[in-house]
Design brief:
31 strands, globular, six-stranded mixed beta sheet, mainly beta, Immunoglobulin-like, 3 domains, seven-stranded mixed beta sheet, 3 helices
């Protein structure tokens, strides 16, 4: 299968560094079109954010660009293009960025699963039709073949009593995963790279496009036994994502007693009293055509996707990456944003340059006030997020179903 790849592999090279390191990466563009790299979830300076024309000129074919920034936060992140991302990511341009804690938790293995799906045609190649009207106005480009680390899933061989840190990254254009670990009791220890009090999920583990979830799995099955990891998000299309296969040997008789709680990252705590408060309404799409006004910004409806009716943020269907800021927030001010999904579809909403606390959903306080950079909002539901606007610049704020972004569900937030 022909793909587009970083350094000839899908996923591209896993970058591992330690919290506090300075990362320097030179990108050489071997494509026949422009590209950039966005360091998803990393709190970079604005000039290093990889948004074409907004934060940098795109890298031309044959050109190069050097990204350099400090890694303030430990966690699971990833990198991908922001230029025509609905096709460039969809053809294989993505890779993990793992920033290790200075004192990692004790595990036997630290594994990364980059999940993706591909739309494969009868010849075994990637199907064309990127950004078509149907995908753009409905659920996005959901593929027919799921991979883990660029390969069809293979059995994960473990030993009874082993402790595994599993870093899950959803690099798919649009597929949402709802993961169940048969016979195990996974502990969620981080979401979107940011630590969370260790807890067991209440139901399947939802991982929307661009999101990451870090789990600790104590392999409590018997030697020589098997269990499955299943995905049941799309009803009627449930399937086994992977199989966990125990060897005949036992590593230890009982789970490790060591703590699995991660140290906090140096994020400024939002001060809700006196915060600037804003309402953000997401509208449009099929079965919700342009609810909320339907004004276009940039000269064409649909984000350059042929001029069709698009998605909206506060009634505006944006095109390109450069447009007037939806909000301007003074640097250092806490902002609280009430996000309303007034569409018939799920949306993973991503803010560049910052992490935010998800303080409530549908008016009810969240259990852990999770730090995230991408919040998955079901149809007709709301989420309140809060963050300190401490990273100056113009920042993208968009749906990470990449077809939705290209068809208008994006905006700019200015921190001045």
């Amino acid at each position: 299968m022909k793909v587009w790849a970083y350094n000839g592999a899908v996923p591209g090279p896993e970058i591992r560094a330690q919290q506090g390191d300075r990362l320097r990466v030179t990108v050489e563009n071997g494509l026949e079109e422009e590209t950039t790299i966005h360091w998803h979830g990393v709190r970079v300076p604005n000039a290093m954010d990889g948004v074409p024309h907004l934060t940098q000129k795109p890298i031309p074919p044959g050109g190069n660009f050097t990204y350099e920034f400090d890694l303030h936060d430990a966690g699971t992140f990833w990198y991908h293009p922001h230029q025509r991302s609905f096709e460039q990511v969809g053809r294989g341009l993505y890779a993990p960025l793992i920033v290790e804690e200075k004192q990692p938790i004790k595990v036997d293995r630290d594994l990364t699963w980059v999940l993706d799906d591909w739309r494969i045609d009868s010849s075994g190649q990637i199907s064309g039709g990127f950004g078509n009207h149907h995908d753009s106005m409905m659920a996005g480009r959901v593929g027919n073949t799921v991979t883990i680390n660029g390969r069809l899933p293979e059995p994960l061989e473990v030993r009874s009593g082993e402790r595994v840190r599993l870093r899950i990254i959803n690099a798919a254009n649009a597929r949402i995963f709802a993961l169940n670990f048969e016979g195990l009791r996974p502990s969620i220890i981080a979401i979107d790279g940011q630590p969370v009090p260790p807890h067991e999920p209440n139901g399947p583990i939802l991982v929307g496009p661009a999101m990451r979830v870090d789990l600790v799995l104590d392999m409590t099955g018997r030697p020589a036994s098997r269990s499955r990891v299943t995905d049941d998000f799309y009803k009627g299309l449930e399937y086994a994502l992977a199989e966990i296969v125990y060897t005949r040997s036992r590593l230890r008789a009982a789970p490790l007693a060591a703590s699995i709680e991660l140290p906090a990252n140096p994020l400024r705590e939002p001060q809700l009293n006196g915060a600037a408060r804003h309402e953000v309404v997401f509208g449009g799409g099929m079965m919700g055509m342009m609810s909320g006004g339907g004004m276009m910004q940039g000269g064409m409806m649909g984000g350059g996707m042929g001029g069709m009716m698009g998605w909206t943020v506060n009634g505006v269907s944006a095109t390109g990456h450069v447009h007037e800021p939806m909000l301007t927030i003074p640097r250092g001010r806490t902002a609280v944003m009430n996000l309303k999904n007034q569409t018939a579809w799920w949306h993973p909403i991503h803010l560049h340059g910052h992490s935010f606390r998800v303080v409530s959903r549908n008016g009810k306080a969240t259990a852990h006030k999770e730090w995230q950079d991408t919040v998955l909002i079901p149809p007709q539901e709301t989420a309140d997020i809060a963050f300190v606007a401490d990273n100056p610049g113009d920042w993208m704020f968009h749906c990470h179903i990449l077809e939705h972004q290209a068809a208008g569900m994006m905006a700019t937030i200015r921190v001045s």
